[in-house]
Amino acid sequence: MESHMxxxxxxxxQAGLVPVVVLDTPEQAVPLAKALLDGGIDxxxxxxxxxxxxxxxxxxxxxxxEMTVGAGTVLDAATAANALAAGAKFLVSPGLxxxxxxxxxxxxxxxxxxxxxxxxxxxxxxxxxxxxxxFPAQQLGGPAIIQALGAAFPKxxxxxxxxxxxxxxxxxxxLPNVFACGGSWVCPTRLIRSGEFQVITALCRxxxxxxxxxxxxxx
Length: 219
Known about the structure:
The protein is an alpha/beta fold. The chain contains eleven helices and eight strands.
């Protein structure tokens, strides 16, 4: 799993931002993936919050191969199996399921489980994980909490998600133990529903400019 995980983390680092996507229909998948690519972002997390997720992942994996598509809101091993079969290159969950971790580890499938406390993080570390999602980031205390957790777990890297936007992206992405941020502000559901994919592309371009500025300042 380590080599696959390293490849995905590198993709995340280069993008700086992982769009968190909610799709109502599979037909929205390919136009959205192309809009993100046009905006300079080649990773996306399609969440299992709707019944369209599986078909959407499959369509993107098949029709837009240059997009690294993953599955989000993966709550159990059964959903993980379905997502991987559909073509997901990585999995993200809102919480920590040791059953799911074991399932993904056995299949060398990159998994980023969500943690919210030091106890959950310690359980993740004991399960062999060194990269996790921190969720919901802003509501839990933001960058200060990530810094505090990092002091106790210096080998762990974080992908904060929840309450992050262009206005506070730098406070997270500039932290040395953050490899990317998850966010939905570049692909709001209302814009997907109305088919305003050019607006989504513009939002992605603005986000990418900010990411590049932040990362250049951290270099």
